[in-house]
Design a protein that fits this description.
Layout: E1 5-6, H1 8-22, H2 26-41, H3 52-60, E2 71-76, E3 79-83, H4 89-107, E4 109-117, H5 123-131, E5 135-141, E6 163-167, E7 175-179, H6 186-195, E8 204-205, E9 222-223, H7 229-242, E10 267-275, H8 282-297, H9 313-325, E11 327-328, H10 331-344
Parallel strand pairs: 3-4
Antiparallel strand pairs: 1-11, 2-3, 4-10, 5-6, 5-10, 6-7, 8-9
Helix pairs in contact: 1-2, 1-3, 4-5
Length: 355
């Protein structure tokens, strides 16, 4: 195991212990711990344990309901809207994915939206849940704070609004697209700040259009959409699907989760599950995905390109490496987590058993 490596179980139990100390019921704490640790396991380090201190602030300020009564407020055969009752977003979206999977088995395709949820970690975690049941999973979300503006505007009315699509394969790694509709996610900016690194130009600009490269000086900065005005259009439409459709926050009603820890965020998300069995033979589909993957990867490469990557392959490789050698956490993050553990009177990460 590498010097800063921790096992998945060690990280999961550290987070779960902290969540129990913060007041989550043990079963819920274990579910949240599992999902947060899985984020780090797949290399989504902007959405894993680095978020624990901010989640704790929100819980202690009363911004999270620790004993929610989640309920379906709308339901038909192939759809539902889940009211998360301001629970931890990980719990809301895990339940939404379970409902979507169950409905898709009966209807072939099922859509479940959420309202009154919270930040839930990386989008691909939830798209992968249907994928692991021989389905295609598609996930949409309104980001936890507005960091960008309509194309050509200055008012902060849009967030990173991510989308994820997970497609199973037979022998090749699954295709898993997970992307913010901005050039980067805000979680990656948090990671840059925590590591003491600069941001590349092109991630964020100020109101005059000048690049911002210091991740500690992002207040008032505008994150740039992918693909210019086309990315802005995608941001908006993802927000409509995940937020507006579910009567969740969108536009000016989005709460800044990095600054306001007590107000209900009414975060909106949505998940679509597509049952492969409804469309034909599952194994034949997976073999076609295998063939497509090899065709993409093995095609003629540009000069100096060693490998053509498919969506999700690098996370797949990182997951295998971390499972074998431990999840690599930056020393600055470990120090921050040690301070957190002492302040909340829980065992430190390195004091937490690895099994």
């Amino acid at each position: 195991m590498n010097a800063n490596g921790v096992s998945f179980n060690q990280l999961k139990h550290f987070i779960s212990n902290a969540m129990i100390k913060l007041g989550l019921p043990p079963d819920d704490a274990l579910k949240v711990g599992h999902i947060m640790a899985e984020a780090d396991l797949q290399g989504s380090d902007g959405h894993g344990v680095i978020r624990l201190p901010s989640y704790a602030k929100r819980i202690k300020a009363g911004g999270i309901n620790l004993n929610p009564s989640m309920k379906l407020v709308k339901e038909k055969a192939g759809m539902a809207i889940l009211d998360g009752d301001n629970a931890m977003g990980h719990l809301v979206m895990k339940r939404a994915a379970e409902i979507a999977i169950e409905k898709a088995r009966n209807c072939g395709v099922a859509w479940v939206g959420s309202r009154f949820s919270n930040h839930a970690g990386p989008a691909s975690i939830y798209a992968r849940m249907p994928m692991e049941k021989n389905m295609i999973g598609i996930y949409f979300a309104v980001g936890g704070a507005n960091h960008t503006s309509p194309w050509g505007g200055l008012d902060m009315l849009l967030s990173t609004n991510p989308i994820a699509i997970a497609v199973p394969a037979k022998n090749e790694p699954p295709m898993v697209l997970d992307m913010a509709t901005t050039v980067t996610s805000y979680g990656k900016i948090k990671v840059k700040a925590q590591k003491g690194e600069s941001m590349p130009e092109g991630w964020m600009i100020d109101e005059n259009g000048a690049p911002i490269t210091d991740p500690h000086k992002t207040d008032g900065g505008i994150m740039l959409p992918i693909g210019g005005y086309k990315g802005y259009g995608l941001q908006l439409m993802v927000g409509v699907l995940a937020g507006t459709l579910n009567a969740a926050a969108m536009g000016s009603s989005v709460i800044d989760g990095n600054a306001d820890f007590s107000t209900k965020s009414n975060t909106g998300q949505a998940i679509l599950a597509i049952d492969l069995d409804a469309f034909g033979d599952v194994d034949e589909f997976k073999l076609r995905v295998d063939q497509l993957s090899r065709e993409m990867r093995e095609g003629k490469k540009m000069p100096n390109v060693k490998r053509i990557w498919l969506p999700g392959e690098q996370s797949y490789e990182k997951r295998k490496f971390y499972e074998r050698d431990g999840i690599d956490l930056h020393p600055n993050l470990i120090a921050q987590l040690d301070e957190f553990a002492h302040a909340h009177q829980v065992p430190t990460l390195m004091q937490t058993p690895s099994s």
